[in-house]
Each structure stands twice: as C-alpha cells, then as structure tokens.
Amino acid sequence: MNILLMILPAIGWGLLSPVVAKIGGKPANQIFGTTFGALTTALILTVFYHPHISTATFLIAAFAGAFWVIGQVGQFISLKNIGFSTTMPVSTGFQLIGTSLVGVVVFGECSSSTQKVLGAIGVLTLIVGIWLTSVTEQLPNQKGHDKKWFGTMIMLVFTTLGYIIYMAIPRTLNSSGLAIFLPESVGMFAAVIIYVIVTKQSAIFKERTSWLNIAGGLVYALGAITYILSVNANGVNSAFVVSQLAVVISTLLGMVWMHEYKTPRELVFTFCGLVLIVTGAVITTVF
Prior knowledge:
Strand content: under 5%
GO molecular function, one term: carbohydrate transmembrane transporter activity
InterPro entries: EmrE-like, Sugar_transport
Oligomer: single chain
Order of helices and strands: HHHHHHHHHHHH
Distance between the termini: 26 Å
Low-confidence stretches: none
Subcellular location: Cell membrane
Number of strands: 0
Membrane topology: Multi-pass membrane protein
Radius of gyration: 18 Å
Keywords: Membrane, Sugar transport, Transmembrane, Transmembrane helix, Transport
Shape: globular
C-alpha cells in the first residue's frame, strides 16, 4: 500500500498536462476546468473528513493557490508554443532549483558544509538536465522558431516563480495537508476567475472544452491527495523524490499523445536531461 501511495502522485501530476492537452482548448479553458475539478474534489473531501481550518490557514493557503495559477497558466501556454519535451523538464527543473534555494535562504536548510556541497551538486545537475532537454535543432521549415522558443522560455522562467512561491508558502503552516487543500483550491479558482475576466475571455465559461478539462482537475487532485497520504506513510523525502517521476510521465506521454516530432539527437538529449533532472531531485532532497 505504501509503495502504491508513493507512485500515485507521480501518475496524477504526470497525467495533468497530457490530459488537458489532449482535450484541447485555450490555456484559459484548461486552467478553468482544472481548478474547477480540483475545487470540487476538495469540497467533497472536506464534507467527509472535516479537517480543522483556521482563518489564518485559509487565507495563507488560498494566497499560495493563487500563485499556483500563475505557474500553471505559464506552463499551459508553453506547451502550446514549444511542446512537452521542452516545457515539462524545464518547468520542473526550475521549480526544483527555486524550492532548493528558498529552502536554504529562507528556511535555513543545508546547515552543514557537506549538505551545502551536495545541494550545489544537485542544483548543477538540474541545470545541466534543463539545458539538455531544451536543445533543439532548427529545421528548414521552421522559420521564426528561435524567436518563439526564446520568448516562451523567458515567459516560462518568470511564471515558474508562481510555482515556487506556491510550494514555499505552505511550509510556514502547521496544518494538515487536507486542511490546506481546500483553501488552496479556493485560491486557485478565485485567481482563475480574475484571470479570465481581466483578459476578457469570459466566453470560456460557455465553452464545452472548459468543462471537459475538469478531468485535468481530477487527476491533479489524485496527485495532491495521494502525495499528502504518502508523506504521512513514507516520509517527506521518499514521497517527494518518487513524485518527481511525474516529469518523466508527462514528458513522454505528452510527446506520444501530441505526436511531437523530435530528431534522433533531440531525443537523446531529452532522455539524458530527464535522467539528470530526476537525479538532481534526489540529491537536493535526500542529502
């Protein structure tokens, strides 16, 4: 049972992006359906388990959820522009680097010299992995590819800051995972409503694709809930490291489902990069 709990977060989070990409729609359709599905699941769990949620916990967790939307919208936009094989490893790698640095600078982790050295090695491994997965070859029929790729990568880096803040804020709370999940989902959904209104995309509320993307929210919730259970059953380090296999699942499944073309050289670099990103995650977390 404990092994299953370790694997399910990777499956849930790994399926999120391929599922919404396969369903289709604009990033606004995808983020609306995802957050609506997550909020629905959180409400059902709250009715059954009645977790204690203080006002402070609710507000802080909801604030964190709003930042998650920034990261996820950036990821959805990037998937459309440069595909799975580049977006998912790069996004995950930057998240791991960011959370590692926040842990050291803000929360005072890696106090010993050995931990600092291993942490630095882990971050360097992640950087090399990110670089390898981002390698592309310009084809004759892809004029303007470099400019689009560069612009999307810059956008992805900045929006990934939303993910980093989302993962850092709950570390200041002592509440249970289930107590945090509902307010985070409320913050996510509220942020999406604001995003849709501000960007004048209110028409997505009536579009069928938006509601089909609820499936994305359900697989996201599967990952989030089983991760909470896995942390309790297996410990933070084991649960987190195994959950990082999500990047392998999402990248490879996304490439297959969306029929992404990669040259043989790009495939080799992508696979090597994925191995290094997972290795970097292990080093920065376990040691």
